[in-house]
Amino acid sequence: MDSAEIIVTGMGLALAVLVIWYFFFSARQTASAVSSSGGVQEVGITVKGGYSPDVIEVERGKPVQLSFYRDEENTCSEEVLFPDFRIRRDLPAFKTTLIELLPEKPGTYPFTCGMGMLRGSLVVK
Amino acid sequence: MEPQTKTETLDIEGMTCASCAASVQKSLSRTPGVQRAVVNFATEKATVDYIPSQATSAMLKDAVVKAGFGIMERAPETSAAERSAEIDRQKAAAYQKLKRRFWVAAALALLIMPLSMLMLWPGMMTWIPMPVLNYVLLGLTLPVLLYSGREFYFSAWNGFKHRSANMDTLIAVGTGAAFLYSLATTLIPNFFRQHGLMPEVYYDTTATIIALILLGKMLEMRAKTQTSAAMKSLLGLQAKTARLVRPDGREVDVPIEQVQLGDLVVVRPGEKVATDGLIEEGHSAVDEAMLTGESLPVEKKAGDPVFGATLNKTGSFRFRVTKVGTETMLAQIVKMVEDAQGSRAPIQRLADRVSAIFVPTVVVIAILTFVLWFNLAPVESRLPLALVNFVAVLIIACPCALGLATPTAIMVSTGKGAENGVLIRNAEALEKAYQVNTVLLDKTGTITRGEPAVTDVVPAEGWQAAQLLPLVAAVERQSEHPLAEAVVRYAEAQPAPLLTATGFRAVEGKGAAASVNGQEVLIGNARLLEEAGVTLSPALRQQAEKLLTQAQTVLYLAVAGQAAGLLGVADTVRDTSAAAVQKLQALGIEVVMMTGDNPQTAAQVAAQVGIKRYFAEVLPQDKAAKVKQLQSEGRIVAMVGDGINDAPALAQADLGLAMGAGTDVAMEAAGITLMRSDLNGVVTAIALSRQTIRTIRQNLFFAFIYNTLGIPVAAGVLYPFFGLMLSPMLAAAAMALSSVSVLTNSLRLRSFSPAKS
Question: ipTM of the assembly?
Answer without folding.
Answer: 0.78
